[in-house]
Write a structure and sequence with these properties.
- The protein folds into three domains: 20-287, Beta-galactosidase, Chain A, domain 5; 300-502, Aldolase class I (TIM Barrel), CATH 3.20.20.70; 534-704, Alpha-Beta Barrel (TIM Barrel).
- By secondary structure, it is α+β, with helices and mostly antiparallel strands.
- The N and C termini lie far apart (99 Å).
- The strands form seven sheets. Strands 6, 7, 8, 9, 12, 13, 15, 16, 20 and 21 form a ten-stranded antiparallel β-sheet that branches.
- The protein is globular, with a radius of gyration of 27 Å.
Length: 704
C-alpha cells in the first residue's frame, strides 16, 4: 500500500514538472497569464479587472521543414522586470509620453534535439498588452522560413466589431459594423468596384486595427506594432467561437517570411479599457516601437499645404500631359491635351495662395513624364522621377516658391513598381535636394513589382522602411500612399510623417463617397497605428464633380474644419481649390490657425461610429483647438473647458453648423461666433446631421 502511494506521488510530481505553474505579469487592472498546456503548447490569457479580455489562446510559429515552434515546448526559464520612463516624440499629439510596463520574458525550447529556442516577450501596460516572438542567436537555427503564425485571440463573447475585409493590397474599404458572428466580407469585396486589386481568399478574414465593443462595457482594439521584416497580420474570424487567428500576408512563392536568427516578429497588441476615450489616448503602440534611428531631427518639420490634386480628382484637369505616348507632332514631341494640371502658371497660382495665407507647402502631382502609361499594365519602367513635362519649369518654380517662402512637395507615383523606385531612389532624392524639395508624397497604385508580391507582404514592409531611411539620408520627410497600414514606425523614423493606408477624403471625389460615420470610426481603427493623410478641408461640398453633378461630400463644412483636430497628422492638406477657400475666408481662418504639432491632447467624448470630441494644445503656446464630429445623427455635445489654464481668460472662436445645416440638404451652412471663456466655463455644441464644430481658444491680453 505504501509503495502504491509512493508511485502515485512520483507520478503527480512528474506531471507537475511537465506542466509548470502559470506565469503572470500585471499593471493596474490589466493582467497577463502565460501557461503551457498539458501537451506543451504555449498559451496566454488577458483580463481587465474581473472581466476576461482574451480567454486562453494559443501561441506559436510554424516553419518550413518542421523547424517551428508549434509545440510541444518546454519552459526553461522566465524573467520579470518593471520599466517606467518617459520620452519626447519629435512630432506628436503630446509633448511627453510615459512608457510604463511590466515585462515577462518566457524562454521556451523544443524538447527533442537539436532543442531550438524561442522567447515570448510580454509587456503589460495599464491599458493593454503587447507580445512578440523572439528567436535568439543559436547554432541550431540559422535561416528559416515562416509558413504560418498560430497566434490566437479567443474572445469571450460575440462582440460588436468595426472591421475591414482582409485584403493583401489595400485598406481603402468602408467599415462594416456588425457582430463577429456576422463577419462576411465576400459581398463587400464583390460590390467594391472602386478597388481593382487582388483580395485575400478568406470571406471571414478582417484587417487590423480591429475595434471591438463588448456588451459588458469593455472596448478592445487588436493591432500590431513595429511591423518590420515581416508581413502584415490579418485575422480569421471563427464566427461560432469568436476566436480570431492570425493570418499573414503571403509572398510571391506562398511563404510568409524569410528569416535568419536572431529575429523577432512585430508586437501583437491588445488595447483595452472600459472607456472609449482611453482607447484613443493610448500610446501603447508607439511605446512598443524602437526610439528614433535619426540622430539629428532638427530638419523634420510639420506642415500645412495646398496642392494641384483635388482639381484632378474632380475632373477639372489631368495628371497626364498628352492623351497617349503615341500622340506626337511632326517633330516627335508629345501633343498636349490642354488639360494638364501641373503646368507652371497653375502651380504659381497655388504658390501665391499658400504664401498669402501662411501655408508652408504646395504639392504638385503629374509634373513628371510617364502618366500616359502608368496604370493597369503591371509595367516596371514607367517613371524616372527626374524628368518633367515640357510645361513644368522645375528650376523656375523652385526659385519662385523659395522667393515666397513656400516649399514645393515632390510627388513620386511608382504605379506599384517598387523595384523601379528603388533603382531611382538616390537619384530622385538628390534631384529633390538640388531643387529645394523638402518633402515627398509617394504612391503605390496597382499591382506590386516584384510581381507576385503584395503591398502588405514582407518584401514591401522592408521597402517602405528603405524609402524612409533613404529619405532621411537626404533630409526629406515622407508621406506614403497605398502603403501598409501604420504600426507606430513614425517613432523610429520620425521623418515618416504620415500615410494614407485607408479610405480618405478623395473617395468623395470619384465614388459614392463615405458615410458621415466614417470619420468617427477612423480614429479607433486606421489611426491607431499612426497619422493619416486624410486630406480634409473641402469647402465646396456639392456640384464639384465634372462627371457627376449630383456627387457630394458627406459632411458639413464645419465638420471639415473639425477633422483637422480629430484626425491627427503633422502633415495636413487644405485639399480644396483656392477659389473655394476665397469664397469663405472667414471659415478658412481656422485652417490657417490650427497647428499640426501639439503639446497636449484630451479626448473629451468618444463612441466609435457615433461621435468624437478632441481638444489639443498648440506646441509651445497656450492656445487650444477643439474638434467635435458626429455621424448621421444630430447631437448636442456638452464641453467642459477645465483643460484651460486656471485664472486666464480666452477668446473662443466657434465655427459651428448653421441652424439649417445638414450634410445632405444644406452642408455649407455655418456660423462663427465669439465669446470670452475660462477654465470654469462650459460650451454646448450643436452638431447637425453629418456635422461638426471647430473651436479655437486664444488667451485674451490682460487689461493695462
Amino acid at each position: 500500500m505504501k509503495k502504491y502511494l509512493l508511485l502515485l506521488l512520483l507520478a503527480g510530481h512528474q506531471a507537475a514538472a511537465q506542466t509548470p505553474a502559470p506565469l503572470t505579469a500585471h499593471l493596474d487592472k490589466v493582467k497577463l497569464t502565460f501557461a503551457l498546456s498539458a501537451d506543451g503548447r504555449p498559451t496566454y490569457a488577458v483580463t481587465y479587472g474581473t472581466k476576461p479580455v482574451v480567454n486562453t489562446s494559443r501561441l506559436g510559429l510554424v516553419f518550413q521543414d518542421k523547424q517551428g515552434f508549434d509545440g510541444p515546448l518546454t519552459l526553461t526559464g522566465s524573467e520579470v522586470k518593471d520599466v517606467d520612463e518617459t520620452w519626447q516624440p519629435v512630432l506628436g499629439e503630446v509633448k511627453t509620453i510615459r512608457n510604463h510596463y511590466q515585462q515577462l520574458t518566457v524562454h521556451l525550447r523544443q524538447p527533442a534535439a537539436p532543442g531550438r529556442r524561442v522567447d515570448v516577450v510580454f509587456r503589460v501596460f495599464a491599458d493593454g498588452v503587447g507580445f512578440r516572438y523572439e528567436l535568439p542567436r543559436q547554432l541550431a537555427l540559422g535561416n528559416c522560413v515562416v509558413t504560418d503564425e498560430l497566434t490566437e485571440f479567443a474572445l469571450p463573447a460575440d462582440h460588436q466589431a468595426f472591421w475591414l475585409p482582409a485584403d493583401y493590397d489595400t485598406n481603402e474599404y468602408l467599415y462594416t459594423k456588425s457582430r463577429l458572428s456576422a463577419v462576411d466580407n465576400s459581398a463587400q469585396v464583390k460590390n467594391s468596384t472602386e478597388i481593382a486589386v487582388r483580395v485575400a481568399p478568406d470571406a471571414q478574414g478582417v484587417a487590423t486595427p480591429l475595434m471591438l465593443k463588448a456588451d459588458n462595457g469593455l472596448y478592445v482594439n487588436i493591432h500590431e506594432a513595429a511591423q518590420v521584416d515581416y508581413p502584415a497580420m490579418q485575422l480569421h474570424v471563427d464566427r461560432a467561437s469568436h476566436r480570431l487567428t492570425a493570418r499573414l500576408v503571403p509572398d510571391a512563392v506562398g511563404s510568409k517570411a524569410f528569416w535568419h536568427a536572431p529575429a523577432s516578429t512585430p508586437w501583437r497588441t491588445i488595447i483595452v479599457s472600459d472607456k472609449a476615450t482611453d482607447i484613443l489616448a493610448s500610446k501603447l503602440i508607439l511605446n512598443l516601437n524602437e526610439p528614433s534611428k535619426i540622430v539629428d531631427t532638427g530638419w523634420i518639420k510639420p506642415m500645412k499645404f495646398v496642392g494641384v490634386w483635388w482639381e484632378m480628382q474632380v475632373g477639372r484637369s489631368d495628371w497626364k500631359y498628352a492623351e497617349s505616348l503615341d500622340t506626337l507632332d511632326a517633330r516627335g514631341r508629345l501633343l498636349p491635351t490642354g488639360r494638364h494640371g501641373a503646368n507652371t502658371q497653375n502651380v504659381k497660382r497655388y504658390i501665391d495662395f499658400a504664401a498669402q495665407h501662411g501655408l508652408g507647402g504646395v504639392l504638385v502631382e503629374g509634373w513628371n513624364v510617364g502618366w500616359e502609361d502608368w496604370f493597369g499594365n503591371w509595367k516596371e519602367r514607367v517613371f524616372d522621377f527626374v524628368t518633367p513635362y515640357p510645361d513644368f519649369d522645375v528650376a523656375g518654380l523652385s526659385a519662385y516658391a523659395k522667393s515666397k517662402n513656400v516649399s514645393l512637395i515632390m510627388h513620386h507615383e511608382t504605379s506599384g513598381a517598387a523595384t523601379n523606385y528603388e533603382q531611382h531612389l538616390d537619384t530622385a532624392y538628390a534631384f529633390m535636394n538640388h531643387y529645394g524639395y523638402s518633402s515627398v508624397k509617394t504612391g503605390y497604385v496597382g499591382r506590386i513589382i516584384p510581381r507576385g508580391e503584395h503591398h502588405d507582404g514582407q518584401w514591401m514592409s522592408n521597402h517602405y522602411v528603405r524609402v524612409a531611411e533613404m529619405a532621411a539620408k537626404h533630409h526629406v520627410t515622407v508621406d506614403m500612399h497605398e502603403a501598409v497600414r501604420p504600426t507606430g514606425l513614425s517613432r523610429t523614423y520620425p521623418n515618416w510623417l504620415a500615410s494614407e493606408a485607408g479610405r480618405g477624403n478623395e473617395y468623395n471625389a470619384f465614388s459614392t463617397g463615405s458615410p458621415p460615420a466614417h470619420e468617427t470610426i477612423l480614429p479607433f481603427t486606421r489611426l491607431m497605428g499612426g497619422p493619416m493623410d486624410y486630406t480634409p478641408g473641402i469647402f465646396r461640398l456639392q456640384g464639384y464633380s465634372a462627371s457627376d453633378p449630383k456627387r457630394q461630400v458627406h459632411t458639413t463644412l464645419a465638420k471639415q474644419l473639425a477633422l483637422y483636430v480629430t484626425l491627427y497628422s503633422p502633415l495636413q492638406m487644405a485639399a480644396d481649390l483656392p477659389e473655394n477657400y476665397e469664397a469663405h475666408l472667414d471659415a478658412f481662418q481656422f485652417i490657417k490657425d490650427v497647428p499640426t504639432d501639439w503639446d497636449d491632447t484630451h479626448i473629451l467624448a468618444a463612441e466609435p461610429g457615433d461621435y468624437l470630441t478632441t481638444v489639443r494644445q498648440a506646441k509651445g503656446r497656450d492656445e487650444w483647438y477643439l474638434g467635435s464630429i458626429t455621424n448621421e445623427s444630430a447631437r448636442q455635445q456638452p464641453v467642459k473647458l477645465d483643460f484651460l489654464t486656471p485664472g486666464r481668460r480666452y477668446e473662443a472662436i466657434i465655427y459651428a453648423d448653421g441652424p439649417d445645416a445638414d450634410w445632405q440638404r444644406n452642408p455649407a451652412s455655418y456660423q462663427i461666433t465669439r465669446q470670452v471663456v475660462t477654465n470654469k466655463s462650459k460650451l454646448t455644441l450643436r452638431l447637425a446631421p453629418g456635422g461638426g464644430a471647430a473651436v479655437s481658444f486664444k488667451p485674451v491680453a490682460a487689461k493695462q
